[in-house]
Amino acid sequence: MSNRFLDLAAKGLHPLKPYAPGKPISELEREYGVSDIIKLASNENPLGPSPKAVAAMQKEMLELALYPDGNGFDLKSTLAEHLGVSVPQITLGNGSNDVLVLLAEAFLTPEHNAVYSQYAFAVYPLAIQAVGAGHKVAAARPADDAMPLGHDLNALADQINDKTRLIFIANPNNPTGTWLDMAELKAFVANAPDHALVIIDEAYYEYSGDQGAPTAIDWLDDFPNLVVTRTFSKAFGLAGLRVGYSVSHPDVADLLNRIRQPFNVNNLALVGAAAAMGDEDFLQASRALNSAGLVQLSNGLAELGLEVIPSQGNFLLVDMAQDAMPLYEALLHGGVIVRPVGPYGLPNHLRISIGTEAQNARVLQTLAKTLDR
Ligand SMILES: *Cc1c(COP(=O)(O)O)cnc(C)c1O
User: Fold this and answer.
1) Residue 97 CA to chain centroid, in angstroms?
2) Cis-peptide into 49, omega within 30 deg
3) Atom of ligand 1 nearest to the CA of 242
4) For the chain, what is the radius of gyration of the CA atoms?
5) In this predicted model, what pLDDT tens digit does every residue of 66-85 receive, in sequence order?
């Protein structure tokens, strides 16, 4: 437990616990001797990676002796064109996680604080804690709300003070799947003080509708303190590649650019992400599979008598109405990996990513057997 170098480490690290990822398939095989495993624990795309991305990366393999373009010119240009923004507004990261950490490093100190909601994405408190800044956590909406456990914008606004430099808002949020009314969110950004950046994390944007779905990126011209983050890990099926980005005021991007690693996005990620961006067929197929899967899984869970929180992501948060760990363990023995959310303060819930039709059916069957229903 105790670490002999703890006293030497930065203070912010003292209370930190490492991020608890979804259990990898190989680990379950190794530890439980189970085979024929399905993993619905990390909101990965069940269709795999975009085939256009794979083709582009296969070619790029032969270029791996060379350092990547540290400025990511081609990918940024592709993104700028698709998003209707300019290249200097874009910051690339080794996953959007990297960009979230860069924002914390650039704007937070032990004298400052960051605001986020109860049940917000676990990476926010980790990034804030690592730089020793203060946390201001807003209470989430109640479980019987129309957006159960979702972000409460009034409660978030109440947490902002003179020391606040960052406000993290995921829309839709992980692990709850809940989303915010875009007019209310825009008013929140408009009312945020100039000394605080509002980070709107749109990791699931590509699932929430078609390309024309409303996005906070459209508000960037009005609000210089707005930062929007996106990722290739979810709908584009490239979680293992580690590539994401933010779109912001160019002066924010300039500061992030000063502290990022010179080659924080690798060659394969640069070409794979650019190719994926143009793979509209794949995105459409991913969206269609996800929409059908959300209906299939939420109906099936409701039939098992379980309460499901509405989701605009590729996952569902389910109230198991009992300690979820024994159920999680039983599912593991049945070869099904889902995500316990005890570390989020939700010991009775499980988060289940949307899989293929067959995978969703398998979770429901395994769960029915476990619950004896
Ligand atoms: C998955 C996820 C991310 C993306 O992480 P990457 O580092 O880009 O893989 C960011 N924010 C939220 C809310 C997520 O769920």
Assistant:
1) 8
2) no
3) 9
4) 20
5) 999 999 999 999 999 999 99
* Angle, CA 170 vertex, CA 125 and CA 310 arms, to 5°: 120
pTM score, two decimals?
A: 0.96
- Report how far ligand 1's centroid is from the alpha carbon of 95 (Å): 7
Per-residue pLDDT tens digits for 239-288: 999 999 999 999 999 999 999 999 999 999 999 999 999 999 999 999 99
User: 159-180 in b/e burial notation, b at 16+ Cβ within 10 A?
Assistant: bbeebbbbbbbbbbbbbbbbbb
Rounded to the nearest whole angstrom, what is the distance from the C-alpha of residue 15 to the centroid of ligand 1? 23
CA distance 248 to 92: 11
**Type of residue at 6:** L
Cα dist. 16→20, 23, 109, 233 in Å? 12, 20, 16, 25
Q: Which residue's CA is minimally distant from atom 2 of ligand 1?
A: 203
* Angstrom distance (rounded) from CA 153 to CA 169: 9
Q: Is the CB of 200 under 6 A from ligand 1?
A: no
Cα 230–chain centre separation? 9
| pLDDT recorded at residue 168 | 98
Grouping H, G, I as helix, E, B as strand and the rest as coil, residue 132 is: coil
Q: How many helices (H) and strands (E) does the chain have?
A: 13, 13
Contact 290, 207 (CB under 8 A): yes
User: Which parts of 304-338 fold into alpha helices (H)?
Assistant: 324-333
Two structure tokens written together for 319: 């109230």
Which residue in this structure is represented by tokens 């049940």? 119
Best residue among 19, 123, 232 to mutate for probing ligand 1, ranked by most atoms within 8 Å of CB:
123
- Residue 237 has which token pair? 């099926």
- CB 298, CB 316: distance < 8 Å: yes
d(CA 184, CA 366): 40
CB of 176 closer than 6 A to ligand 1? no
**In a 3-state reduction of DSSP, which class is residue 233?**
coil
Q: Tell me which DSSP letter residue 21 carries.
A: P
For the Cβ of 170 lying below 6 angstroms from any atom of ligand 1, the answer is yes
- Is the CB of residue 308 below 6 angstroms from any atom belonging to ligand 1? no
